[in-house]
Design brief:
disordered N terminus; eight-stranded parallel beta barrel; eight-stranded mixed beta sheet; alpha+beta
């Protein structure tokens, strides 16, 4: 079939000939050769709306316009002179007809201006002209330039090459007798593929590729199986501000690479030699029947085992550490899985652009608990050490090499990643991963910029002047463009099919179109043969905010999709303040569990009682899954649907249509850990034991919340990052995990200056205070209490209700309204006739106060409730929970101080 396909498209190949790419180009130590220089810098203020319409915002409506072109990128168009260096031009007229609806909607963000139209007789020339430099000029009758601009090309390329979306085999495709190469590069002048026998061997050949005029893909086929070899592309393309260049670049569809991503690796991911024994048979545990069953543990591959001395030295920080079934770390994960943890979500494991894969630095800091030396040493090697969170994608489809035993061997990372998945399955855990399709690590013509060096200006979202938008922190991708959306979807399908990824967390998902995410959901479900859970950050900000460019995959616009978004409602109420806080406010704004009003710290004494009541209601919003229609009696005595409760000044507190769309959390890799935020907000005199109890309260609220439960690795062992608010590049030192349960690493130095120095005066006395550091017994208590919470959540579907109707009909809060005890959360969930309930009813109470409280509920009078078996089991962690009581005659619960407790009705 593949031979037939190649034969069919051959007839449409472009036959234009160029000077052949010489073999020595393939071995160049550089990554770009300038074939014809042109440093002319022009903004791209005009936008192609479709194949033949151009909008130039702000331009004159009665002017003359010409589109100049040059195959060598030689055009110079300076105001007051005539255009130089062009090979020709087209006259464009101002269109008098309406822009087609699809184009008008897609480019609604483009400001008003004349819409210019390519003449009928010139339309056929456009595909070829897009392989040249194009400059749109407003000129006077004598041809003098009045204004000039480049044109943003995505609208035209998507229209001209719509067929490209259906290409099934971009990248390298080896077979028994042939290896095909296919690269989408519709603006390239010429493309060749360099082939290498090994990761560092000299090139053995360079092969010209041919352009398929229908799809814009360059294609060639070589008559042998090249599996296990390496390749790069030489792409001749016009680059704005540079001229005509030859880029030596790896494949955007690489499935693996050699060390530091210098060369792409040819592999059939279905090949037997890339499958560890038992790979085809491995299946995830059947612990998730509905998305609300998910209890996720967010884990970084390197953090997991780096300091685990029960893992052999060469395996620490690597995929292979997960094969050490008797290591402390794997024992810890198995115990969590047995208690009810369902999923491990790995921080990014695609090819990361910011981690050296060979010879990375490994600094060994030391110093006082509040010292500056640790972070100073980390800072010196921040860009050359072995650690990064990994939100720096270079190749989306390839496994990261720094976690492999041999990053130079393109096969090892594939095999070892699969072994890791198998080992997690065997430990009782499904495997998810964090994916970052909203930005790239580098853009433009830098060496690690892959997409921009293949199709300049296409894959990234551009502003009104043609500069790349950077609201995500980095170089924003444009998943509203057909081939960027295709790359995201194809990549997710690859990870699902070939690595058996069970679920995904999408970074800054609100920067992607809802429609693209819905297509992605359909395709990963199809390849998996089951529902693949999708969750993500649905934050609404930047150039796409409030639907400025498309309907976003954001909190308020994903209703009905079943795709989950992180809920900041309960998070902020529980922790206090907001993630961006700094200065004294980070201490002053206490949260529900760490003393707001009822236990003020040195700066928190001005908080009004109403603040605690509001916080309690927002915590209840999270406990109810943040679903829009749930009716809650708020602190003023009124009953409101959650969507009618205001959050953040102008948002509905309830935003989800179903509980599956709400992801509840109180800690993740971002911002201070829960232990650290409590170190800042709890009164300094709070004992270490009580700090551990406060940590458990936060974990309990998450465990009892309807929706998806999400935890950061180490929250159960009081993980500290020494108050670091952003440890993405803080090295191993500030990101350690101790599976011997002896240390949580609080007070291991002032956190890195870049993100924290302004708050060092606040941090220093806390880090120097030895009383704030937990003892091993405190860590053990939190660890075991977390396991008990997992057991409680997994014991009943009542804490994992499937639908909004279930929540509305079965969940009932008491101790609400103006007469409530605001430091106690109390709820009853009716289990009558509910599949998997295992109890006739279940009630939970969370007392965050420093003193015992009695809470009555008249509707429960006469019931014979008992403590959940997890509380009364031998070895149960929280002995204080055994002091909780229920009086059947009065319907009164007695709840000890700083205790979360569950009662059940048989």
């Amino acid at each position: 079939m593949r031979k037939l396909h190649l034969a069919l498209v051959a007839a449409s190949f472009s036959t234009t000939a160029y000077a052949a790419v010489p073999l020595d180009t393939c071995d160049s130590t550089g990554f770009q050769q300038i074939l014809h220089a042109n440093g002319e810098q022009l903004d791209a203020r005009a936008v192609w709306l479709d194949a033949r319409l151009v909008r130039w915002p702000g331009a004159a409506l009665d002017a003359r316009y010409r589109l100049y072109h040059s195959p060598t990128g030689a055009i110079v168009a300076k105001a007051g002179g005539k255009v130089a260096g062009a090979a020709g031009s087209l006259k464009l007229d101002i269109s008098t007809t309406a822009v087609p609806q699809a184009a008008a909607e897609r480019f609604k963000w483009v400001a008003p201006g004349p819409t210019l139209r390519v003449a009928d007789g010139d339309v056929a020339r456009l595909p070829a002209l897009h392989r040249e430099q194009l400059v749109l000029v407003q000129e006077d009758a004598s041809g003098v330039v009045l204004a000039a601009t480049r044109i943003q090309s995505a609208g035209a390329l998507d229209a001209l090459y719509a067929a490209a979306e259906g290409i099934p085999d971009l990248g390298a495709t080896p077979g028994a007798n042939k290896t095909g190469f296919k690269l989408w590069a519709p603006t390239a002048r010429q493309v060749a593929v360099c082939t290498y026998d090994g990761p560092t061997a000299k090139a053995n050949a360079v092969h010209a590729m041919k352009l398929d005029d229908k799809t814009g893909a360059w294609i060639t086929g070589l008559p042998r199986d090249l599996s296990g070899s390496y390749y790069k592309y030489a792409v001749d393309v016009v680059v704005p501000g540079a001229g005509l260049v030859r880029n030596l670049v790896t494949d955007p569809y690489s499935v693996s690479l050699n060390a530091d991503s210098k060369r792409s690796y040819v592999a059939d991911l279905d090949a037997p030699n890339l499958k560890p024994a038992g790979w085809d048979q491995t299946r995830p545990p059947a612990t998730v029947q509905a998305q609300t069953d998910m209890v996720i543990y967010e884990l970084h591959v390197r953090d997991f085992s780096l300091i685990d001395e029960t893992v052999p030295g060469p395996k620490r920080g690597k995929y292979t550490a997960f094969s050490e079934t008797n290591s402390n770390g794997m024992k810890h994960l198995r115990t969590l899985a047995q208690a009810g943890l369902t999923d491990v979500h790995l921080l990014p494991v695609y090819d990361i652009g910011s981690i050296p894969e060979i010879g990375c630095a490994q600094p060994q800091p030391s110093g006082a608990p509040d010292g500056e030396s640790q972070q100073a040493l980390i800072g010196k090697t921040a860009h050359t050490d072995c650690f990064n969170w990994g939100y720096d994608p270079q190749h989306f489809n390839a496994v990261e090499g720094s976690y492999a035993s041999d990053p130079q061997d393109g096969a090892r990372r594939i095999v070892e990643f699969r072994e890791m998945v198998m080992n997690l399955h065997q430990a009782g855990l499904r495997v998810g991963t964090d994916v970052v399709y909203n930005h790239t690590f580098i853009a433009g013509q830098e060496e690690k910029s892959i997409l921009d060096r293949v199709v300049p200006g296409y894959y990234h979202r551009l502003d009104a002047k043609g500069a790349i938008e950077t609201s995500t922190c980095c170089f924003n991708t444009a998943t509203e463009n057909t081939m960027m959306a295709k790359l995201m979807i194809d990549s997710s399908v690859l990870w699902t099919r070939h690595y058996k990824i069970d679920s995904y967390r999408f970074d800054l998902m609100g920067h992607q179109p809802r429609a693209a995410m819905e297509r992605l959901q359909k395709e990963v479900n199809q390849v998996a043969g089951r529902h693949v859970q999708l969750i993500g950050e649905g934050w609404n900000f930047g150039e796409v905010a409030d639907g400025a460019r498309f309907v976003q995959a954001s909190q308020l616009s994903l209703n009905g999709t079943g795709i989950g978004t992180f809920s900041d409602r309960g998070r902020d109420a529980v922790r206090g303040g907001s993630p961006g806080d700094s200065g004294e406010i980070v201490i002053r704004q206490q949260g529900y569990i760490n003393g707001l009003v009822y236990d003020p710290n040195a700066l928190g004494g001005e908080a009004r009682p109403e603040a605690l009541l509001r916080a309690a209601d927002l915590v209840r919003v999270g406990l109810a899954g943040s679903v829009r229609s749930y009716p809650l009696q708020t602190y003023d005595g009124k009953v409101r649907q959650l969507q009618d409760i205001v959050y953040g000044g102008n948002q509905p507190a309830g935003y989800a249509s179903q509980p599956a769309e709400s992801v509840n959390y109180v800690e993740n890799h971002d911002n201070q850990t829960l232990y650290d935020i409590n170190a800042l907000k709890l009164p300094v005199a709070t004992t270490a034991n009580e700090r551990a109890r406060v940590q458990v309260l936060g974990m309990a609220i998450n465990a009892f919340s309807q929706g998806v439960a999400y935890y950061h690795a180490g929250t159960e062992v009081l993980r500290s990052k020494s108050l670091d608010r952003n440890s993405f590049n803080s090295g191993d030192w500030f990101n350690r995990l101790d599976w011997t349960y002896q240390d949580n690493f609080f007070g291991t130095g002032l956190p890195p200056a870049a993100d924290n120095a302004k708050d060092w005066p606040l941090f220093k006395p806390l880090l120097a205070n030895a009383a704030l550091k937990p003892a091993p017994s405190d860590i053990a208590f939190a660890r075991d209490a977390f396991r008990d919470l997992l057991t409680i959540r997994s014991s009943s579907t009542l804490l994992r209700l499937r639908s909004t109707d279930d929540i509305n009909g079965r969940l009932r809060f008491f101790n609400t309204g103006p007469e409530q005890v605001p430091t106690v959360l109390a709820a009853w969930i009716d289990g009558q006739g509910y599949p998997g309930a295992n109890f006739a009813g279940l009630g939970y109470l969370v007392n965050v106060d420093k003193k015992e409280h009695v809470i009555k509920d008249a509707t429960l009078r006469g019931k014979k409730l008992r403590l959940h078996p997890a509380h009364t089991a031998t070895g149960a962690a929280d002995k204080r929970a055994l002091e909780a009581r229920f009086d059947s005659a009065s319907g009164a619960f007695t709840v000890p101080a700083r205790t979360a407790v569950v009662f059940v009705d048989d």
